[in-house]
């Protein structure tokens, strides 16, 4: 076993402008948010196609009109009680000490950074360095990264592309840790020279499969509060790719809907891909969401498939040209797309374990899943389906969490049996006051109540006309049938470990109120929602296993200098950092919210970043920008360790709009001003980055 020396890269001093490439003109961003290249590669242009949700759920208006009386029934509140009274009734106040103590990690917010700047900017007094980059070897120092000679076999031994979900599982000694990272998708146009032969093209497709999935990597350092180095050849190092075997758990395991000619049992699936966000469980495993799986398959486009956006067109990556299972029109492979779109669970402490796909948590474009243990010991997982007009879900386990489960054998079964719910929201303001601009209604708040509608209870379908395995495989259709609320792309959904309140990042939805699509509703109050919002949800009685909740909008994002209809929990808009397209959420040890963004360049003209948002006391809603990622990139997987003055982020798709011959980023291998490091190869490398206080 060896540890890396200076690799990957030296420490970077904070906040110097490092424009190694000429400033680029603002590229043609899509109306909503991100660059057209990202739309094409990440989501298979989901936003350019018709919204897949054509369901005629009871409209939000129908539901809202009965809101006050229903709220009284649900929560035992007096009809007409004000929003604050309701929140007090169902909420749990944060411990006073949390607000009073404040976090460490003091910083002066950075100014927003123009969308074309190729730099990672951190506050004064902080320094950053990559921990590990795409192509860094996990198993042998002899594996040298060179995009011009890369093979699939080598890529399987290196960190994958486009770092997304991230956690750093620290050993109590503070000197060793395990890093777990998702690799959402690939951008072959900047990863490799253009293929000139069919053989080269085929190899690039297999390399692409090997660059998807997840990585597990051991870290080391000499002292707490120092930057980490990753360990080449460490025992827990592992790559999971688009061809790694997974078992299937839960009620739909073995279902005819999951069987193919290669797997007549419906219980053994090869690979995971488009892994977006995730969550670390209290028992030490990592959950990862399979998101835009539709972009990897050609399919007939049956009604069930169309509800997920599966189409007959050739795919962008053309994997169907090298492996017939990616063409679901091929006899024997019709069900292959049903084997993706799940939450997967990986045990990073057991490199020999077979990762699992959990059917009990439903099949949709899973952003991620985050877990809370209820007072009863039941496990609750919150999940968003990241597409325009899709839904918010939660799972409640049948069995209870067991402390001291040494090999995690009991706890690793918890996500295999239980109940699945989808959310219906009700607003408490008259529908005519929800104008679509974002102007607050007369009660001063976008807020109300809601209920978790059962799809499956204790393993039994609650949806008329659907068997249990049909609910779990065609979850979107089942949720349509019970009248779930159409949301503005719910991405990360995460409970605050200090208060239990749940934060829902609705990243944006520029289709709201257009054409025949649903218009503004109180929980999604802006038509053509470019900037997104964050909802704070409070489970009734602080019981996450229950079915009633209260909610309010915490942030209506945007640049207050350009948009009169932003909202920051009542904090003066002129005193916050502009923020757009909230995507991943995280909490520091004091329960302060941190939000990373994906899409700010197209919406407000600034690079994406990481933002701190206090939730308690007079600073509640004061958005402060901590860092900014390079041109083309989104900020992912924030991990905040304020006790150590350390922050970690995954920098995904830097330089996205470049080409092999005209790269737009050299991230992260910037050297001194105007130079590059010895390690630079001339293009960007998506990386996991650490930021520490000097
Ligand atoms: Fe992969 Fe929903 O972002
Ligand atoms: Ca209201
Ligand atoms: Ca995301």
TrEMBL record:
Region span, Disordered: 509-529
Biased amino acid composition, Polar residues: 509-519
Transmembrane segments: none
InterPro entries: PhoX (IPR008557), TAT_signal (IPR006311)
Protein name: Phosphatase
Organism (species): Actinotalea ferrariae CF5-4
Upper lineage: Bacteria, Bacillati, Actinomycetota, Actinomycetes, Micrococcales
